[in-house]
Amino acid sequence: MIEAVGLTKRYGAKTAVYNLSFQVRPGTVTGFLGPNGSGKSTTMRMILGLDRPTAGHVTIGGHAFRDLPNAPRQVGALLDAKAVHGGRSARNHLLSLAQLSGIPASRVDEVLGVVGLQDVAKNRSKGFSLGMGQRLGIAAALLGDPQVLLFDEPVNGLDPEGILWVRNLMKMLASEGRTVFVSSHLMSEMALTAEHLIVIGRGQLLADMSVKDFIAANSAGFARVRTPQTDAAQREKLSAVLTEAGGQVLPEQDGALRVTGLALPRISDLAHEADVRLWELSPHQASLEEAYMRMTQTAVDYRSTDDQLAGFAAQQGPGALLPDAAAPVPQPVPQQGWYAPPPPQPGVPHPGVPGSGPVPADQNPYAQPVQAPVQEAAPTPPSLSKSDDTTPEDAR
Amino acid sequence: MTTPSTPQAQYGSVSAPEQQWQAQTGYVSPVPLRRATLKDALASEWTKIRSVRSTLWNFAVMLALVLGIGTLIALALSRRDMPPGESAVALGFVGVLLGIMPVMTLGVMTISSEYGTGMIRTTLTACPSRARVLGAKAIVFAALTFVVTLVATTLVSAVLLFSLGGRTTGALWGWATVGVSAYVALIGLFALAVGALLRHSAGAITLMIGFVLLPLVLALFLAASPMHGLQDFLLEYSIPSQLGVFYGTSMVQGAPGGWEALGIMGGLTAVFLGLAFFVQDRRDV
């Protein structure tokens, strides 16, 4: 059990973490999410007593980390895969850590086997890849058979087989009754690993809830409507009718329409009244990734801009690579990939923030499964049914 | 998977606070918990210092300088070159003076390489008591340096005495081996404290080399100026002349003896090591 109360950390004028309070309970994998620079690692370091909080405190099993009688036997941590002396062999690195808490050398060989590094145990860790470094760090965390485990970005640099292994390892450790706290910015990974989420942005708590609640509270579903592709007029007609009825309609690249703000039965009724045949009418629930993007898009510190190549402009011939600003063509939304609805309006309580409470399911027209309208709609060609992004992107 | 099959005897008995810890949490390791001690940290630091190449290289360079220069002197000179009353043992001074450099480098690296590589975060996560980590490092490094320097100075003294002859006393022999080794270990420890304070290898090593050589160089340039008091002070208390004290040679009259030299260096080291303990305990890593 990890308990943070009013945790605050300032570096000079910059506040890295502000008034963060949360609990991490044993028996489940708790995901710790936030964009780059949101204060995840700073929080991890404060939990481990490496950084002193400016205000507030954090305890593990009721003790401050620095008061634990034998830290590695109680708390295992992977902070940074490269936080090792590169000149030391993997085995000696682990041996020095084991000796620090009186763990016998035989245990070192055991964890080397667990993480699959037994063949390179004698090699200097300087030559390790990032993935091997992660495995070494996980081995160090497991060394003391601890009750509480913290992992900071454990799947960075791992191959797909390694990612699957870490995922199963986390779940297994939690099922043994341990407290497992995993930070990541890979939402799709957390969707498969964590049961509970703590989301921070700009050092402040955005959400502390189960994965299921998080999606329900933060996702905005949409309906995909497809009219016969041979008849563009039907599409225009339906689009106009739906907009008139109060829905937002966005064209997709392959000719389908993405409709928000209208329930599926209502779309079907409107299409029927307008005498437009439908080839597809399907509900789409946002994935965890979309929910996360929506929640954190106002708290992202580092955002990329388009590369205009303006610095090269003088060297190029006239007219080369100049964007055609005169023709504002409405950009179709991508068929696949994430789609973030507009951020919450100011004044409207943010659904994810504790206190404002989760949004009741009936406010979200797509939160509950809508079966009947799908059957009511015209039969969907099998070739189109595969374009369904209700499944998380990473479920490959 | 993560539990050893048999509880090890080394884990020892379970005390009350540890039982309380186990009672309030979900998973309980089948291996009983015991408090970590300085002894564990010493074993860990010994593993660390013996498992990096810089230890080997620095001590190899130190041995090569002390023994190599001593042997060269022994070959270049003959018994007739020795002034009466002078002991051949004193000629080991040059090698040891140069041998201090790799020792200081290693002293700095012992701690600053942990900061440089980020290993310090792993170490302090495995042992939250920063004083225990620094203390264990200091003890292991100082003991190892003392032993290696003792071997080097004993060998070079024997070589010089055997080939060049001359009279020697037990006291001079003792100062030129045990005394010098203790002094070198203290300088190394001072370098370790500076490394812990600066956390940067190159900076700390540069500072230490300046600390050893600069006062003497300054003193040479003060010869023509009216600052004879300062010049005498620098000549007397610079590291090379303090080291010379152990060989019975000193640059100025009335210079301090071996015990005083050890006391000065010991005091300086204690102050900086204390500062390192204090700062390290409060600093974010």
Automatic annotation (TrEMBL), chain A:
Region feature Disordered, mapped onto this chain: 321-396
Pfam families named in the record: ABC_tran
Signal peptide residues on this chain, from the entry's feature table: none
UniProt biased composition (Low complexity): 321-339, 356-378
GO molecular function terms attached to this record: ATP binding; ATP hydrolysis activity
Keyword ATP-binding: yes
PROSITE patterns, A to Z: ABC_TRANSPORTER_2 (PS50893)
Membrane as UniProt keyword: no
Biased composition (Basic and acidic residues): 386-396
Ranges of compositional bias, category Pro residues: 340-352
Domain ABC transporter intervals: 2-227
Stored SUPFAM superfamilies: P-loop containing nucleoside triphosphate hydrolases
Keywords tagged on the record: ATP-binding, Nucleotide-binding, Transport
Recorded family membership: Belongs to the ABC transporter superfamily.
PANTHER family: ABC TRANSPORTER, ATP-BINDING PROTEIN
Protein name stated in the entry: ABC transporter ATP-binding protein
Organism: Streptomyces finlayi
Species lineage: Bacteria, Bacillati, Actinomycetota, Actinomycetes, Kitasatosporales
From TrEMBL, chain B:
Presence of keyword Membrane: yes
A Gene Ontology term for the protein's cellular component: plasma membrane
Keyword vocabulary terms for this entry: Membrane, Transmembrane, Transmembrane helix
Residues that span the membrane, as ranges: 56-77, 89-111, 138-166, 172-198, 205-224, 261-279
Keyword Translocase: no
GO molecular function, one term: ABC-type transporter activity
Name this protein carries in UniProt: ABC transporter
Organism lineage: Bacteria, Bacillati, Actinomycetota, Actinomycetes, Kitasatosporales
